[in-house]
Each structure stands twice: as C-alpha cells, then as structure tokens.
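Technical note accompanying the year-one report. For the benefit of new consortium partners, we illustrate the data format agreed upon in the data management plan: each record pairs a sequence with a structure-token string. No post-processing was applied to the example shown here.
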Amino acid sequence: MKTLKIEIEEDVLFDLKIPKDRWSEELKKELAIQLYREKLISIGNARRLAGMEKMDFHFLLGERKVPRHYDLDDYRTDLETVEKWEADE
C-alpha cells in the first residue's frame, strides 16, 4: 500500500490545541471530516482515513453537524442492490 506524508512545520503543530501524542490521530480525523464535508471523498474512505469504525465515524459527523451525502437516488440504488441480492438467494 502506498501512503502520502504531509510535512507540517513544528511551530504550527505546537500551536494546536491537541496533545502531541495525538497529533497524527486527530489530524487524520479533521482531514477526513473536511474532505467528506466538501464531497471530495466517500464516507467509507473518510472513515478509513480517520481510522474509525463505521458507527463511531457517523457519531463524529453528527457531533460536528456534518450532513450525510445520501439522497433519494442513493436510496433507490441501494434498494435495487438489495433486491438483486434477494433475487440471487
């Protein structure tokens, strides 16, 4: 798996209101939330970036009042998928 490293100047990091031992963890969450909010990443990949379980990430989005990107067309697509699964059984 390839990864990307982002360089952030230490004086910027020290200005964070986050304990040093949680910088990486919290910055990943913040990036995931913002990318999802701006519709630049799916909820699944945002959750993976944040390193969180599905429900925990949903709760975090709720705490931050980030709306889910799920509309009627998404619902219809999901419904069709479930119907196909049921037909295959």
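Partners are asked to follow this layout when depositing records. DSSP finds five helices and no strands in the chain.
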